[in-house]
């Protein structure tokens, strides 16, 4: 976040903490104007809770793995490849041209040790999973990368990583990409899309090896996609090397989940541009390239400036006031660290609690990214509730939570450019700030909740609603879409 305010200091990076995925304030029910935004559905499927991961009665892994240690991670990875190959053997045609052919070989290594080469390169300290075009081989780091994915995001995070790598194999089978002509952005988002297509099959209950709930289970898969993705493009990088921001990559996954492999095959530079809408470039590229901290200290002055900027963005007839102490509210539940009270038209902030939410944590540490906009997105969402009250709209229910997410996204889009305020203070958001907001939608959902903190259980749908405001034309679209 770029700040243009007086006496605001920049906070240094702090020790990263793992964010636990959790719902916020209970689940609420309701309907929206489109099936895509239906609070009780995920890409047309019912929202379900229950076990996610390996089926206890599933088959054993089959197939050779080069350099395997025969441990649990290699067995999980091999089962994932087995499942992917079963799916694509039966679902490759007619959406994709050519003929499906399983990859030629699999390789495991431990990035903490010197081991075999992969694709002509040393695997020491290569904490990753990859596909090699030259010998049609998929490899994975069993020492750090996949164990961390499994520990924090579940067994299907491992499967999700490998489904992305198998997506690269599919691209070459179908002749969809050319290493010399296709941008990295197109190739990566297409692979994300293929992963979404396969994981819908798992969520539908068709896999004999894995099961996936569309509530918390899918939330964890999306969180893993966010954390384990490559860094946001910086100005120091080649524009063709960008893999996409969190919102872009998750939208590619969602495209595959909702529309299938034919939609994935249609991803090209023009399709990505259409999906981006007319987002400002500042929301596509990290202007500082992660070279220095862009996180601002969450303090009273920053919050005051944020309230002024939000007033300019939303232009309410009766702007809410800011209070840094919690007081009983006659007509709403508290939603710490930020609450909105309709009867007093006040946004109450627990400053120490909000500072904790805004404490920087980088995905370089393999945790959900967090920073100043993790906190300011929550403030924005409570301001959005005040705006809805000013229009005499209801403040409770699932549709309200999604409308709030949409209005939050729309405001944050406006804040990607300088917003004129009476005092001249501005807060300018960047691509990394949007990633922080997306992570928050998965970790707690408060930015997509109603006045009592009730939110829909599917982070998938929360993100769809937020993104609809972020790439939409104006605030009015949120009111009509979630009327």
From TrEMBL:
Xref: SUPFAM superfamilies: Metalloproteases ('zincins'), catalytic domain
Protein name as catalogued: Peptidase
